[in-house]
Design goal:
Number of strands: 16
Number of domains: 3
CATH class of the largest domain: Alpha Beta
Helix content: 25-40%
CATH topology of the largest domain: TIM Barrel
Structural class: alpha/beta
Bound molecules: 3-methyl-2-oxobutanoic acid, zinc ion
Largest sheet: 8 strands, parallel, barrel
Strand order of the largest sheet: 2-3-4-5-6-7-8-9
Amino acid sequence: MDRLYIFDTTLRDGEQVPGCQLNTVEKIEVAKTLESLGVDVIEAGFPVSSPGDFKSVVELSKAITWSTICALTRAVENDINVAAEALQYAKRKRIHTGIGTSEYHIKHKLNSNREEIIERAVSAVKHAKKYVEDVEFYAEDAGRTENEYLARVVEAVIKAGATVVNIPDTTGYCLPNEYAQKIKYLTENVSNIHKAVIATHCHNDLGMATANSIAGIMNGARQVEVTVNGIGERAGNTALEEVVMAIKSHKELGIETNINTKKIWETSKLVSTLMNMPVQPNKAIVGRNAFAHSSGIHQDGVLKHRENYEIIDPKEVGIDENSIVLTARSGRAALKHRLATLGIAEISQEQLDEVYQQFLLLADRKKSLSDSDILTLVGEREVVRKKITLDYLQVLCGKGVKQVATIGIDIAGEKFETTASGNGPVDASIKAVKDIIRRQMLIQEFLIQAITKGSDDVGKVHIQVEYNGKIYYGFAANTDIVTASVEAFIDAVNKFSV
Ligand code: KIV
Ligand code: ZN
């Protein structure tokens, strides 16, 4: 197996997106998660660009022990000096320097010519070499750079000491066969190419970032530059999870990465939450629907043999179970399976037929059915005596005031009350509940939906709470979304012992 190095630029190329900016503490959290995911190189920032970026590179250098920390520069001496200073505490460090090589960049951005660009590239690499052994060179807009000239640039920078040569498709312009050809051309026409690792860095403007990266890898690239969830400027960068799972799924490529794929899901969620960037539901690998089967034929097929309709076991990316969405197109097999996961395993064929008919009637009216709906259909909700109920809830919220919730709860006839503050009324209320029910619980999913669109609408809250390694689902509906949130949380907690 050949080793493919994963270079993550979520904190540099990804973080450039307006609205995705993180503070240093958040960056450290993401970097530590990337390190435990097994990322080889973490691009921590562009130190000369701002004091904030400089500080982040310093702090990440201190916090990370195994992954290499990389800092970006232009082919400018001062950028390189500042990057070297920011990297001083890194256990493993890399300077990533480079310059535009396409005719667009040479003429219309740098107002230069081909020979001068090679000189500037070489002197930048030589300067970076004074500080670190590991120097990566990027030929910006390599995707639109003529291959013959690109090969001259690459040969010159490797001679100057570059250990990695990055071939970015900066504008996401290339077709997979074109990008494949480019990498192949370099392997065949750069005499010293064996002295450096070739890196892909593909943007997704035409939706081909992953395809192009794989094409590059199949033609000799051994470092791939990616971001979690594919975040990045414009249409984004190559998604880490897509490349890693494509490589893992196609063993015949003979390539492996160091990624612990079971941590992909939690990493995706962390980045999406901290960067305020929701993941589209149908996103490959990490989208909410990536492993959800809704048609009856598919559900039945998956339940009979997972591989009938799934090329990846969801557990491989850290998802507990393939979430089968129940809709009007679902069959009896899917309904029976869901009932079993809800603890109702003993059900006769006759009962199942009866529940299934009711299920179809309800599913015709609702797009998809929740676990609470299913339990209501089998009459389970009435027989499960709720141990915990919400007696009252009072919240103080608004602009310029502390968000405080006072709550009264009844646990099997015993009354409890407490007050807590939090980051908003829902957070304060849930904290108050947690203060009373002292268990190690973690909210994994929290979704508020409106039924119609008016301000008098009923809010439906779906919640998933992790407790003792298991996920419990809770649901509630109320015109007051704070009350609905608390009731949904309590609904999940009530299922802990069911
Ligand atoms: O897309 C690009 O060309 C880049 C370089 C700075 C590596 O992000
Ligand atoms: Zn980029």
